[in-house]
């Protein structure tokens, strides 16, 4: 797995993707960014990385990062290329994640 300790986000050509964005057990105020119908329970960083690779988003894994709203939870994050708006990118990932979980 390609892990990078530091990734520069300057230039806004990269997007931070936290597993919490796709977690069906979280409310919007707790950090979920996708609609409930596209969210899954306990999304894993490895799943998100795999999906981002398939979508050609050039994901970089940062396992040592913690989602600010849940600083005690060390699930890590992904840094992906920005090909669309952040919302559209998250929806693309969420749709593929939902398909993967349902198959």
Give your account of this protein's structure.
The protein is an alpha+beta fold and 103 residues long. It has one domain (14-102): 2-Layer Sandwich (Phenylalanyl-tRNA Synthetase, Chain B, domain 1), CATH 3.30.56.30. Helices cover 26% and strands 12% of the residues. The chain has two helices and three strands; from the N terminus they run E-H-E-E-H. It has a three-stranded antiparallel beta sheet, covered by helices on one side. The relative contact order is 0.26.
Low-pLDDT segments, ≥5 res: none
CATH superfamily heading:
Signal recognition particle, SRP19-like subunit
- Which structural class is indicated by helix and strand composition? alpha+beta
Q: Rough shape?
A: globular
Estimate the mean pLDDT confidence.
88
| CATH architecture title | 2-Layer Sandwich
**CATH topology descriptor:** Phenylalanyl-tRNA Synthetase, Chain B, domain 1
Strand content: 5-15%
Q: What is the total tally of β strands?
A: 3
